[in-house]
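does this look right to u?? NAP version
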Amino acid sequence: MILLNGKETANAIKQDIAAKVKEMVERGERAPHLVAIIVGEDGASKTYVANKEKNCQQVGFRSTVLSFPADITEEALLQKVAELNNDDEVDGFIVQLPLPKHIDEDKVINAISPKKDVDGFHPSNVGRMVLAEEAFVSATPYGIMLLLEHYGIETSGKHCVVLGRSNIVGRPIANLLSRKSLPGDCTVTLCHSRTKNIEKFTKDADIIIAAIGVPEFLKGDMVKEGVVVVDVGITRVPADNEKGYRIVGDVEFESVAPKASYITPVPGGVGPMTIISLMKNTFRARELKLKK
Ligand code: NAP
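got this back:
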């Protein structure tokens, strides 16, 4: 069994981006600039945004965090999005989700210029990804693709079972892996909460991408020998430690790992790949702007 080490892979990509930013700046161009909008006081959102900021600093990007109170109106938030769309000093920006209930998330995402939508959530980017055109692919599926590529995982002709059909993970990764490209060329089965007898599919899978948010759902007796397993799940479960919780994936590592040829750990697998993919998208946004 080989660990698909997201931390190491992300670090290698980080160094590559940092070197390219240095070159860019030495050429007299300004460094890429990523802006994150955060609304309210959600602890997890703050942690994610702080992590993104740290990564920006490490690769030499300029980073700005715009924090707004939870009671900001939808109109005011849309106004801010419009300003960022028109700000030439901003290459890409993200609106950290979830947003408070009184704000229509779709409306906000649709208002972001697709050229600055480095989260890849805008329908235009989703559509372009489906058509295999140049697009910002959302960070988690993009990160999974980079991880599979980095480890040279054979995907062509393989049966890939994706667990979960969310717009940010399950559906895009199912689409990417079914595309006529590498990684890709998989035969994909997409399972969700209405799927009957999930084991029937997982037992036949060469590759499993688990993204359902149910701790340790996938057990050793549900997979075949040699399977490649990518565990996207992140759930905090109470634990007797300093933090009072530990992070658990969707895969029961102890029982699945001995049967797997490759498997991601949680944490240290998909998580670091997600953040570095956002950095890659931001760098790409800057490059595309310079090409104009
Ligand atoms: P989500 O929007 O809640 O979607 C969960 C999906 O799993 C849904 O399609 C749901 O089916 C399906 N599902 C739930 N319970 C199931 C079950 N018992 N059997 C089969 N399918 C089931 O979740 P998400 O945003 O995609 O996130 C999934 C997990 O990945 C979460 O733990 C999240 O924290 C984690 N995550 C990690 C990263 C990272 O960077 N590592 C990034 C994003 C998400 P229905 O559609 O039928 O409801």
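Residues 140, 163-166, 168-170, 191-195, 211-214, 232-235, 270-271, 274 surround NAP (CB under 6 Å). idk if thats expected tbh
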